[in-house]
Amino acid sequence: MIRFLLDGETIEVEDADPTSTVLDYLRYTLRRTGTKEGCAEGDCGACTVLLGELAGEKVEWRAVNACILFLPMLDGKALRTVESLGGTHPVQRELVERHGSQCGFCTPGFVMSLYGRSLGAAGTKGVPVGDVIAGNLCRCTGYGPILAAGEAVPATAGEDDGTLEALRALRPAYGHPATADELADLLLENPETRIVAGATDVGLWVTKQLRDLGASVFIGDIADLRRIEEGPDALTLGAAVRYSEAREALARLHPDLGELVRRIGGVQVRNAGTIGGNIANGSPIGDMPPALIALGAELTLRRGTERRTIALEDFFLSYGKQDRAPAEFVESVRIPRPSSDMLVRVVKLSKRFDSDITGVCGAFALRIADGMVTQARVAFGGMAGIPARAPGCEAALTGQPWSEETVEAAAQALAKDYDPLDDLRGSAAYRRKVAANLLRRIWAEQSETVSVLHG
Questions:
Q1: Domain at 2-169: CATH architecture
Q2: Rounded to the nearest 5 degrees, what angle is found at the Cα of 352, between the Cα atoms of 346 and 358?
Q3: pLDDT in tens, 104-124
Q4: How confident is the model at residue 158 (pLDDT cuts 50, 70, 90)?
Q5: DSSP 332
Q6: In sequence order, which ranges of 170-236 are alpha helices (DSSP H)?
Q7: Fold (topology level) of 180-336
Q8: CA-to-CA distance for 402 and 451, rounded, in angstroms?
Q9: How far apart are CA 250 and CA 239, in angstroms?
Q10: Is 363 helix (H, G, I), strand (E, B) or coil?
Q11: Which of 422, 227, 420 is CA-nearest to residue 333?
């Protein structure tokens, strides 16, 4: 059974298919047809709804894509759809008055994203309206009236409508593991079980490929997998920490990491996708792994009561294959804090700036002392079947003067480090060229900075 709140009413769902989507349940069972299907892959935002869950003494709301959210992931939470607003919310009034809707298909998704901002929902606090709606697409209005409507509605502290007490009284019924220990025991008994965290990728296996996931376990609510620990030497993130939750801590580690997170999907995707899921998925174009590899991150894997820690770069073996045994799962990732003498740059290239998949992601961590490169860690995503370091480039930099000649030699060495992907996001030749140019750009930026400082 699945039990959740919808506008204050407890909804119980018996014998639900574990891969039924919230979108389909809303439209075909509850007949809440305001929530639309545009892409069925979490890209267009027409299906945006708000989920609420307990966070201490308050309800934390977050916008998510209903098209790739599985129904059991509602268990123990509160749900709001565009119908919950009744047509009278300030966001709706502002959109009407400013002519922010034309055909209207995408409008409910925009309404819910902006409504989330008005509540101070996850990923929206202190964030420009343009970033809040970056995960919502419109073909008609040109966005100007929508942005103006969002700006006209101030963020508030939320609404005291009884949801907090109702969630406290609601007992989850589906039977998700409550702790990492329970998850470890379950996987030992059923090692073929599919682990689902945010479903931002697995959801597409169902909606686009019509795959049967088999036995699955949802881990997004396991508290001890959602810990964020900031220490003087490192940042440790539990595997189930969502990107919207990790962004500020990552930005404190280095601003480029915060900027990288800002461009991972839209707010809805960052509110569901997890650090561990992105790593365990093993995609060659996953956004975060190249940056974490360059910074020397370590991964803790757990099987039963046994744990092992490995360098993140060693986790990726070949395309679609990772160093993870049956019943073993990613528990956390530890990211060393860059020292003050380290030059760190992380750059993502994609066809569309917002809410798009990586074409090439380059990450550089260089330690420079007295004009010499004493250490170099360079990693790329989108250049091979796995995210990987560039050994030739690193060797060409290490022990050499930090100079244009050294950088050019290292840029040339990159051509031998990878056999790049050749697909719709970029040809192999394009990837080789931009990878080398990213390194050249770092040198150009640093040279300009030095020139300015020394006048």
A1: Roll (3.10)
A2: 45
A3: 999 999 999 999 999 999 999
A4: low
A5: E
A6: 180-189, 202-207
A7: 3.30.465
A8: 15
A9: 14
A10: strand
A11: 227
